[in-house]
Amino acid sequence: MSTRNGIKNWATLYKELTEAMEFNRDPAKAGPMAAYMKNRFVYLGISQPLRKELSKPFLIESKQLTMEAVLEMAKQLWLLPEREYQYIAMELLYANRKKWNTYSGTYFLQLVTDKAWWDSVDFIASKLVGTWLAEETNRAVMKEWVKSDNIWQNRTALIFQLNYKNKTDVDFLFSAVRALQHKKEFFVQKAIGWSLRQYHRTSPEQVEEFVETIGLSGLARREALKHAG
């Protein structure tokens, strides 16, 4: 049965969603969208506003599903080749954040390095991993990711606190920046600057003093002090 008490199961929602997306495929837009992402992914050619319009009713209906069903639907969307489906999978997971459990968080960590690029990692880091770890004081995983050779794990460790404001674990943030400041990788340097710029909104003097103390330079410094007086 596709429904129970009027509630659709995840497979029915998945089928209806993918059919709606396929119907709106636009090859003329797919090429430029792929090019913008360095041709790392293929696209249906659906712009963000239309994608959100198409997926909105499915995200709403998904809130009637169990977290197990939500995760299964997200996994199936993630497997599809077109990049728009990964965007919807992430939005699906975030829309159901009130039902997250330990397994959900473990899955978020796995997603960071699967089909990784800045467009997915930034959402996963700040919205999924960041929200999941918001009330967690154990930084063991993030400490390991600071030491990782994987730049997307590095980036996640730097930016998962973007929305924490005065709840930011400053000791961890500054420690991560110190450990990674000499890594000559654009996405890491950009993340250092971004994370410090964001915390600068909460504690400008502390960030400015830190930047000077550790001798931060180049892109990371410019980004960190972008809004300094």
Q: What is the compact description of this entry?
A:
The protein is mainly α.
Compile the SSE list and pairings.
Layout: E1 3-4, E2 7-8, H1 10-23, H2 27-36, H3 48-62, H4 67-79, H5 83-95, H6 102-111, H7 118-132, H8 140-146, H9 151-159, H10 170-180, H11 186-200, H12 204-214, H13 218-224
Antiparallel strand pairs: 1-2
Shape: globular
The rounded Rg comes to 19 Å
Regions with pLDDT < 50 over 5+ consecutive residues?
none
Counted beta strands: 2
Q: How are the strands of the biggest sheet laid out side by side? A: 1-2
Count of alpha/pi helices: 13
In sequence order, what are the helices and strands, one letter per element?
EEHHHHHHHHHHHHH
- Strand fraction equals under 5%
Give the terminus-to-terminus CA distance: 62 Å
Q: Quick one: biggest sheet?
A: 2 strands, antiparallel
- Average predicted confidence as pLDDT: 96
Helicity range of the residues? 55-70%
The chain-level structural class is mainly alpha
Task: Please provide a written account of the structure.
The protein is mostly helical. 66% of the residues lie in helices and 2% in strands. The chain has helices spanning 10-23, 27-36, 48-62, 67-79, 83-95, 102-111, 118-132, 140-146, 151-159, 170-180, 186-200, 204-214, 218-224, and strands at 3-4, 7-8. The protein has a two-stranded antiparallel ribbon with strand order 1-2. A hairpin with a 2-residue loop joins strand 1 (3-4) and strand 2.
